[in-house]
């Protein structure tokens, strides 16, 4: 994608930090197309005829990172679709091409490949809070989410993979001065206000 036509913000943070919630809020404020890598993988897992369904299910349950070729292909397809068709479902109407990419890249290899072959991100929003808080949120959500990884065993594995594989990605972008760190411990509304001001700064 042409970086002069497309703006990408990566949204990172631990499992349950509130990435999806905050992206949904930012879509209301700015003309963003919100793409959650996890949601795209879950949709592909459930798509009839997908050759990756079983593989994705196993990786997600174990909290492991699905091989990057699959995820990057899904993201690229979704970006292309959004640029050509718009995303009326999210109220995304014009084609300036502003993307919030949620929960990606969570491993160094994905970060390098996306930067080199898809496009460069403008900013990384990093939502951070304690493991205790994230566990509490996910266990609560697990009562109704139907997500196969919202159980204590999977959550512990997700925390481990996050620390071992995703934190280095955040470090890497931090060294490139691309990271805006946002304390996600406060209420959804308070976190939203902070996130909103970060994006406003970027687009100023
Ligand atoms: N909540 C949110 N904010 C709150 C606040 N401020 N105060 C109180 N409660 C708050 O929020 C989680 C819950 O907390 C909700 O109930 C919310 O109301 C509440 P949410 O916004 O859903 O948090 P989020 O950070 O999006 O949590 P999520 O569980 O989606 O994070 P993960 O990063 O674990 O999940 P994701 O879907 O991104 O990935 C799932 C799996 O897919 C990965 O483990 C991996 O196996 C696979 N994957 C890949 O392999 N590759 C990828 O590139 C991406 C994913
Ligand atoms: Mg999410």
UniProtKB/TrEMBL annotation:
Q: Under the GO molecular function aspect, what terms does this record hold?
A: ATP binding; UMP kinase activity
Top-level lineage group: Eukaryota
Tell where it localizes.
Cytoplasm; Nucleus
Q: Per the record's keyword annotation, is Manganese included, yes or no?
A: no
Chief localization: cytoplasm
Please give an example of a GO cellular component term from this record: cytoplasm
The entry marks the following residues as binding ATP, namely: 16-21, 141, 186
Q: Which terms does the UniProt entry file under GO BP?
A: 'de novo' pyrimidine nucleobase biosynthetic process; pyrimidine nucleotide biosynthetic process
Could you tell me the keywords of this UniProt record? ATP-binding, Cytoplasm, Kinase, Membrane, Nucleotide-binding, Nucleus, Pyrimidine biosynthesis, Transferase, Transmembrane, Transmembrane helix
List ligand-binding residues for a ribonucleoside 5'-phosphate.
Answer: 42, 64-66, 103-106, 110, 147, 158
Keyword Cytoplasm listed: yes
Q: Where is this region: NMPbind?
A: 36-66
Span list, region LID: 140-150
Q: Which family does it belong to?
A: Belongs to the adenylate kinase family. UMP-CMP kinase subfamily.
Q: How is the subunit organization of this protein annotated in UniProt? A: Monomer.
Domains: what does the record tell us?
Consists of three domains, a large central CORE domain and two small peripheral domains, NMPbind and LID, which undergo movements during catalysis. The LID domain closes over the site of phosphoryl transfer upon ATP binding. Assembling and dissambling the active center during each catalytic cycle provides an effective means to prevent ATP hydrolysis.
Q: What is this protein's function?
A: Catalyzes the phosphorylation of pyrimidine nucleoside monophosphates at the expense of ATP. Plays an important role in de novo pyrimidine nucleotide biosynthesis. Has preference for UMP and dUMP as phosphate acceptors, but can also use CMP, dCMP and AMP.
According to UniProt, the name of this protein is Uridylate kinase
Query: What species does this protein belong to?
Result: Fibroporia radiculosa
Q: Lineage in the entry?
A: Eukaryota, Fungi, Dikarya, Basidiomycota, Agaricomycotina
């Amino acid at each position: 994608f042409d970086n002069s036509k497309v703006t990408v913000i990566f949204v990172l943070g631990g499992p349950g930090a509130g990435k999806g919630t905050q992206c949904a809020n930012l879509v209301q404020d700015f003309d963003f197309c919100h793409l959650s890598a996890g949601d795209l993988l879950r949709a592909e897992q459930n798509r009839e005829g997908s050759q990756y369904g079983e593989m994705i299910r196993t990786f997600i349950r174990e909290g492991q990172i699905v091989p990057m070729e699959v995820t990057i292909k899904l993201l690229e397809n979704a970006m292309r679709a959004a640029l050509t068709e718009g995303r009326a479902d999210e109220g995304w109407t014009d084609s300036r091409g502003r993307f919030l990419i949620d929960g990606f890249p969570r491993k160094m290899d994905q970060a390098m490949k996306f930067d080199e072959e898809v496009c460069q991100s403008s900013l990384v929003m990093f939502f951070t809070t304690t493991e205790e808080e994230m566990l509490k949120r996910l266990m609560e959500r697990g009562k109704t989410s139907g997500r196969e990884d919202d159980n204590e065993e999977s959550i512990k594995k997700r925390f481990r993979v996050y620390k071992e594989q995703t934190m280095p990605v955040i470090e890497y972008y931090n060294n490139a001065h691309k990271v805006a760190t946002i304390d996600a411990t406060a209420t959804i509304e308070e976190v939203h206000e902070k996130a909103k001001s970060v994006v406003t700064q970027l687009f100023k």
